[in-house]
User: Which sequence fits this backbone?
């Protein structure tokens, strides 16, 4: 019996699309799902002789070439553990399990270590690009031990998106590095979407533009440095018409946004590692705040908001502000990955992270070219804002970012992501901060000690 080169567990849209992508690249794939309908649907796809599917997990494993290579595309959390528990009795030492979902990186580390004890390789693999990306070429962020990666590298490179003919599937490092990088990718995505939403708010309710006009603006911006999937998608969303009531669909969508955890995980881990990511933090907070719609309705009735005052804010100012805030959101996320790589012994190459995001993923944009150039420089191993060219790129647009923030504050717009981006830049580029006073206060009331500018060591002052 001819055996399949790889297996797929989870035959939802993502799993099925990735299977077809693999089959298109001449890889034979067998799928497994407990849902007979999903299995039947996949088997009914015409013109694919190199795919199959089953509801029998024993049959599934027996039909895969050894060492078995199995990708899981199931919801993150306990379901992953349940699937692994069902799968392990049919595996042998040297087999490889690859979790392609959005699992929390600490869960991935636990699974990595538990399976290592019984001789089974476990890989955490971030996948970005959604349903379309899975079918035509996603951004893939694999990690785990190099031995396992080497055995699946060719398949991943074949199905990944390509940038300048190079696959966006570089190895991210040890253990859970792939899921960590994908987590931060999603955190950056949170920040960028919040900035786009605030831009939409300012253009519509500040400058009085209609949905079609804003869509045209986004389409124009998508041809320049702001080009990317999210700007392109925002232009598309704003044009969609509602089939029920007529008019633009966007005007009938409730203004409450929810999250699935990756943005929150990014903020939490950044705080644990003491890495500032304020734009991402505010994007998470903005979603949480939006959920209090009843309270917002009541409180807004007290607010006698004045009409927009005369101003000199122009569309080009908003474009520049968005460019600098996008850049600062990337900078925050990349800083976090760099610190985490050292803290968790990932040994992640930052140039590979940026390369993986150039095509196929949700946060791809023209700005990544600037970061990639820096990381390709021999010897660069710092925070990327410390690179002079990156600093100049952001600083060039800072006057317009400040202009937008002032307009938002003066006219009662909740532009928290824009404001936090500007404040981050100001604080990060300030030689002397006011934290000396905080250290003095801490020593006064808690004897926490402080460091001095003129001597080495720690000191305590008798304040009385």
Assistant:
């Amino acid at each position: 019996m001819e055996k399949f080169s790889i297996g797929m567990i989870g035959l939802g849209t993502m799993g099925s699309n990735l299977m077809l992508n693999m089959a298109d690249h001449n890889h034979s794939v067998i799928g497994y799902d407990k849902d007979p309908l999903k299995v039947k649907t996949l088997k009914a796809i015409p013109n694919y002789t190199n795919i199959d599917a089953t509801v029998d997990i024993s049959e599934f494993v027996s039909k895969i070439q050894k060492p078995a290579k199995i990708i899981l595309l199931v919801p993150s959390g306990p379901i992953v553990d349940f699937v692994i528990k069902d799968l392990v009795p049919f595996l042998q030492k040297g087999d490889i399990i690859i979790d392609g979902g959005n699992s929390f990186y600490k869960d991935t580390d636990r699974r990595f270590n538990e399976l290592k004890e019984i001789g089974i390789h476990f890989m955490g693999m971030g996948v970005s690009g959604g349903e379309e990306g899975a079918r035509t070429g996603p951004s893939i962020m694999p990690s785990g031990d190099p031995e396992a990666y080497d055995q699946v590298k060719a398949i991943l490179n074949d199905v990944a998106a390509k940038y300048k003919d190079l696959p966006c599937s570089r190895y991210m490092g040890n253990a859970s590095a792939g899921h960590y990088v994908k987590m931060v990718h999603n955190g950056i995505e949170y920040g960028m979407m919040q900035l786009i939403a605030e831009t939409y708010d300012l253009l519509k309710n500040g400058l009085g533009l209609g949905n079609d006009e804003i869509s045209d603006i986004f389409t124009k911006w998508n041809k320049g440095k702001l080009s990317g999937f999210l700007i392109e998608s925002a232009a598309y969303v704003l044009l969609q018409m509602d089939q029920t009531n007529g008019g633009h669909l966007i005007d009938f969508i409730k203004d409450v946004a929810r999250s699935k955890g990756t943005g929150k995980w990014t903020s939490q881990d950044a705080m644990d590692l003491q890495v500032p990511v304020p734009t991402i933090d505010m994007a998470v907070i903005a979603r949480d705040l939006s959920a209090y719609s009843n309270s917002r309705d009541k409180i807004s009735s007290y607010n006698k908001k004045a009409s927009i005052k005369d101003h000199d804010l122009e569309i080009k100012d908003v474009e520049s502000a968005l460019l600098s805030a996008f850049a600062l959101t990337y900078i925050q996320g990349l800083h976090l990955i760099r610190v985490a790589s050292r803290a968790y012994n990932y040994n992640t190459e930052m140039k590979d992270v940026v390369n993986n995001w150039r095509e196929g993923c949700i946060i791809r944009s023209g700005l990544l070219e600037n970061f990639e150039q820096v990381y390709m420089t021999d010897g660069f191993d710092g925070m990327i804002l410390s690179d002079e060219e990156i600093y100049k790129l952001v600083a060039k647009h800072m006057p317009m970012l400040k202009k937008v923030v002032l307009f938002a504050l003066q006219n009662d717009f909740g532009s928290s992501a824009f404001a936090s981006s500007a404040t981050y830049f100001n604080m990060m580029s300030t030689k002397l901060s006011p934290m000396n006073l905080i250290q003095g206060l801490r020593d006064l009331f808690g004897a926490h000690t402080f460091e001095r500018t003129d001597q080495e060591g720690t000191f305590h002052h008798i304040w009385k």
